[in-house]
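[DERIVE STRUCTURE TOKENS]
===
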Amino acid sequence: MPTPRIVDIEQRPSSPARRWPRGAAAAIALAVLAAVSAAALLAQWLDDAALVLRAAVLAVGGGGLLLWLAARNLDAEAFGAANAVTLVRAALTVLLVAVLGTAPTPVLGWTLVGVGGAVVALDGVDGALARGRGESSAFGARFDMETDALLILALAALVWQHGKAGAWILAAGLTRYLFVAASWAIRWLGAALPPSRRRQAVCVVQIVSLLGALAPIVMPPWSAAVAVAGLATLVWSFAVDVRWLARARS
């Protein structure tokens, strides 16, 4: 996904009190409730009571953090429909993270593919809504990007947990976080990148490859082959961006 410029909060005019955008608290509360309720249904189906606790901790913690960030960084009166769609994607992703502690089964595998497929299907809807409704913002773009990053990390961990690929597949989910960490030490890596269709396409390819590897009908070594193809595409895309940043520096 395109990397938005991070808003420098220190340069903003100070206001007496930052308020939550209208509808943000209600939307986030509903998303937390939906994620925990879905986890409760899965817990009964999969006989894993701890799944509910994991989902609750992740959803409440993530929801509180999102509400705080929206109050500080979203320069809009309302949370907006586009951010609400991204919030649905984030809630489903939290559910995938919570399932990491559940024993793998074919039924669970298909469930995860279905949930992940829903997250992918909604990708792009938030962007189209933002453009169509005039709700585009740096906060929304960053929210969408971080949701994609967490989704890739969760799917990579699930592929490993289900025995579809080795621990090396975690690199698919960790590459972006390592890139961000490297930008703290190497300042020019933190420069803003221009919008890129290639980056968007590679993100989708990476997610679809992980879902394909996770599908119960795709068994090793074919699942590993699908996973490594997606990882190679991701690494290539990051290499292209690093090369562009290195040239832009000079």
